[in-house]
Amino acid sequence: MTLALLAILGGFVLLIWSADRFVEGAAATAKHLGMPSLLIGMVVVGFGTSAPEMVVSAMASFDGNPDLALGNAIGSNIVNIGLILGITALLSPITVHSNIVRKELPLLTLIGGLVGFILWDGTLTRFESLLLLAGFIGLVSWTIFVALRTRGDNLETETDELLIAQAMPIKKALFWLVMGLVALIVSSRILVWGAVTVAHALGVSDLIIGLTIVAFGTSLPELAASIIAVRRGEHDIAIGNVVGSNMFNLLAVIGIAGVINPMSSFPADIISRDWAAMMLMTIGLLVMTFGLRKATQLNRLKGGMLLVSFVGYNAWLLVTVMS
After folding, report:
1. Cα–Cα distance measured from residue 321 to residue 323, given in angstroms and rounded to the nearest whole number
2. pLDDT for the residue numbered 60
3. What is the C-alpha separation between 301 and 295, in angstroms, rounded?
4. How many CB atoms within 10 Å of residue 145?
5. Residue 285 and residue 105 in contact, taking contact as beta carbons nearer than 8 Å
């Protein structure tokens, strides 16, 4: 038990460090290859921060723990909106200028509804998982198309400033890209082993561990990225990072986990409790940031509401586990 707890702690630390190195290396490499700043911000930075969720869920599925993989994906989305955006908005109100971010939020809501429809029968087949991956490929293609056609968006300006601040030689960028990926895989393996061992020792299901401890740990890169972005005044990166990550979790993370290990059945609570909570938070965020003006703000009051919803969900989770 002690060794498993140390594995979770050590896995989290290595996971956060490796995710940061991986994203920085990938972004710098993409910049050296001539990729537009807006495309780097939307694809590499936005989706790259979800690498921990992807690798952890893949490892969990390989190890025969699909409930942990599914719980990690949905739980991470709840953490991203309720905890990360809630805390970030409380620290500093987030002003959304980017038209691209505004378009992605309704799309995230639609993707969440699609995932709920697929999971509604209590199964996740390999074919359904492949459909999710096809949707992810379509999403990336759309993102590239929009990024190549858009000029002057606020997200592009903020990403360009971020890349200038993190500039590194191509050899160093490639080194951290590879080393970050290797460390991600190793840390994910350690974390999954520790989480499953603790869950079994405490008599808690893999799903609950995935929704709580693992989801929080794999979302730490998004928390760090959002807080740093807001402190630098890069508000569109802060919220765009979360929205992009959530779409990645629903399409790629669940899709990869289902292809590796299809789920013939999983607890009904995933739909009635966890997916429902995720959708309520997603719709709430959409309503909070919707506006006909050029800029809308996720102020401290709205951030507090998101944080309260996150606390309420976890209280609901605790009650259902104890009953």
Report:
1. 6
2. 84
3. 17
4. 11
5. yes
Question: Average model confidence (pLDDT) for the chain?
Answer: 80
Number of domains in the chain: 1
CA distance 14 to 4: 15
Closest by alpha carbon to 70, among 266, 320, 310? 266
Encode pLDDT of 28-45 as tens digits: 776 676 666 556 655 666
Write down the pTM of the prediction.
0.83
CB proximity list for 202: less than 8 A, separation 6 or greater: none
Mean pLDDT of 182-188: 78
Q: Are 98 and 154 in contact (CB under 8 A)?
A: yes
What is the pLDDT at residue 292?
A: 47
Look up residue 229 and give its two tokens. 């972005």
Cβ-proximal residues to 83 (8 Å cutoff; 6+ apart), any chain: 216, 219, 223, 307, 310
Provide the CATH number for the domain around residue 60.
Answer: 1.20.1420.30
pLDDT tens column, 112-171? 999 999 999 999 999 999 999 999 999 888 877 776 666 555 555 555 555 555 567 778
The per-residue DSSP string of 92-129 comes to SPEEE--HHHHHHHHHHHHHHHHHHHHHTTS-B-HHHH
* 43: nearest Cα among 126, 183, 155, 127: 155
Domain that holds residue 151: 2-322
